[in-house]
Amino acid sequence: MADTPQAALDERVKDISPIRKALIRPELGGIIGTVAVFTFFALLAGSSGMFNAQGIMNWTTVSAQFMIIAVGACLLMIAGEFDLSVGSMIGFAGMMVAIFGVTLGFPMWMAILITFAICLACGWLNGYIVVKTGLPSFIVTLATLFILRGFTIFIPQTVERKTIIGGIREAAEGDWLAPLFGAKILGGLFQWFGDIGLIAVFERGNRAGQPVVDGVPMLIVWAIVLIVFGHLLLTRTKFGNWIFAAGGDAQAARYVGVPVNQVKILMFMFTAFCATVFAVCQVMEFGSAGADRGLLKEFEAIIAVVIGGALLTGGYGSVIGAALGALIFGVVQQGLFFANVESSLFRVFLGVILLLAVILNTYIRRIITGER
Amino acid sequence: MKFVKTMVAAVAVAAAPFAAAADGHADLNYVLVSHAPDSDSWWNTIKNGIALAGDQLGVNVEYRNPPTGDLADMARIIEQAAAAQPDGIITTLADFDVLSGPIKAAVDQGIDVIIMNSGTPEQVREVGGLMFVGQPEYDAGLAAGMRAKGDGVESFVCVNHVISNTVVAERCRGFADGLGVDLGDSMIDSGQDPAEIKNRVTAYLTANPETDAILTLGPTSADPTILAVKEMGLDGDIYFGTFDLGTNIVEAIKDGTIQWGIDQQPFLQAYLPVVVLANYDRYGVLPGNNINSGPGFVTKDALGKVEEFAGEYR
């Protein structure tokens, strides 16, 4: 340091204290929001079973669902685009697994792979239409929303005369790929927790003696894997910079050689991938695909991302923030049930708390970054 | 700082209704989990039923539902209810595949479960429920179909607004079997939006003018269908039967647009499980069988009480 004193004096470099530097990150609002929400429910619903093993698993699972679709939506939003077809894609993907795996009797691994291929193709098509026509992604994916939902109702009605197809669990038995989405891990650890009395065990029935929480569902593992992947991709790679650049100012990014179109199309495909993961985990857990699955999930994904500090205009945001946003959303939604809130007012509270979270977040970001 | 104060005040205001619910008067807590989206008005009777039962018996009964009617969300709500350790859960079995897991887990955890509204006695036994309180859907449809056949009906259209609920579709199947015709393409998926339902019914009746009868599966599909029929000038001419009652349906029965309504008496489906659970928990007494809350045919001749309480308790 001693031999480069002029570096510190360079007038072009603004002096920022290390503490302030550590605080200037899109996640900060999310972190504070998370703390606030947990404090709120610990005071309000602390004794209701929300924080026993079963309760924790309940809101963690719901949050993990939001996280999976929020990671995709977050990267896409940073790249400057929206995907409103996420919810329909979830219903559609689940139905495809059921059609191929149960109705047509394909092996489950093949049904899952075909589903991924079809859904990634839909994502590619979304992206291709957006970059080729220059239409707002809002409109293009709104069309996809209707198209996919329509097929999700039409196809099973035509081939099976009903809109719920069951029997997926049975069809997936013994399959090598299905457990990657539907299994639970760490069962032994939880059995041990149950044995030493750390978590409650079933009192009766043929599962008596087993712990009430018998493992971590793959859904949660997927959520963590996608968050880590998304975060590293965004913050540690050249591609991550391209995503920011494409969303910040697409034209400027093109001038410096960023392949903006490819980045956007890839992000649409990644969003479709996340939606398909969500859907496959869901049909493997519940054993049936229904035409009404995933309704309004696209907005839940966007809400989680915005709570997490991303800008709707693109170019700013973080995957960790989106994950925290999903956690806040999941905890608030399930926590309101634990707190016994009047059911007809449920959505009012949900709306109010989410609004408070976003306002708090924006407020904190403004203080820190000094923007007006 | 002013902002922070506002926030604190807002949170305090938001918290007020919870406190009231949390320190309720009762020693017994029950949760009713339905499969209905917020938009389904029929479940209002259920809410009134549990509120009345709760007041009369001095127990707490909470109502929960998945806001969009997504059954996977409903499974999470049942898991949530079980985690909160109530004395009993009253729920529907709208999709056995999705809901049997969470319900079985709740039963095994030591929580008493009564299945209401949707499900079959076999399924209820399999998940370990105490009993089933509801209307056997296929049988109700069959009875309605036989009645319609006696009135000279040979073809029909079934307006289904809950196409994803397989149990409710059994009503159409039963009706077709009662008439002795094939269900075929007679069931239309109407969606939930009143304007769409009305237009689809109009379109179907225009395209298939030889249709003898209309069967609607609840107020959500019946109310717009009444309008469609009146607009086409078919009221009183086309044979019109419906499941469930509501204010508009009662009016239409009175003016002759609808021949009959099948009342499954949702009030009983909500009220009786609370009574059964409370007495089971307090005194250990339990009725020995499932309870059929319906079907009861409501025609023009028996409308007095129905009219008085339509949409509230009927």
UniProtKB/TrEMBL annotation, chain A:
The protein's matches in Pfam families, at most eight in alphabetical order, are given as: BPD_transp_2 (PF02653)
Compartments it resides in: Cell membrane
Q: Which CDD domains match?
A: TM_PBP1_transp_AraH_like (cd06579)
Membrane-spanning intervals of the chain = 28-50, 56-79, 86-106, 112-131, 138-156, 176-200, 212-234, 265-287, 299-332, 344-364
Q: How does it sit in the membrane?
A: Multi-pass membrane protein
What residue stretch is flagged as signal peptide? none
**Keyword line:** Cell inner membrane, Cell membrane, Membrane, Sugar transport, Transmembrane, Transmembrane helix, Transport
State the function annotated in the UniProt record.
Part of the binding-protein-dependent transport system for D-xylose. Probably responsible for the translocation of the substrate across the membrane.
Q: What is this protein called?
A: Xylose transport system permease protein XylH
- Look up and give the organism this protein is from: Jannaschia pagri
Q: What is the lineage of its organism?
A: Bacteria, Pseudomonadati, Pseudomonadota, Alphaproteobacteria, Rhodobacterales
Automatic annotation (TrEMBL), chain B:
Q: Where in the cell is it found?
A: Periplasm
Keywords recorded for this protein, A-Z: Signal
Question: What domain of life does the native source organism fall in?
Answer: Bacteria
Chief subcellular location equals: periplasm
Name its species: Jannaschia pagri
Tell me which family the UniProt entry assigns to this protein: Belongs to the bacterial solute-binding protein 2 family.
* This protein's record includes keyword Signal: yes
Is-annotated flag, keyword Magnesium?
Answer: no
Q: Which Pfam families match?
A: Peripla_BP_4 (PF13407)
Task: Give the signal peptide range.
Answer: 1-21
InterPro entries, sorted: Bact_Solute-Bind_Prot2, Peripla_BP_I, SBP_2_dom
Know the name of this protein?
A: Sugar ABC transporter substrate-binding protein
PANTHER family, per database record: ABC TRANSPORTER PERIPLASMIC-BINDING PROTEIN YPHF, D-XYLOSE-BINDING PERIPLASMIC PROTEIN
Looking at the record, the residues that make up the Periplasmic binding protein domain are: 33-280
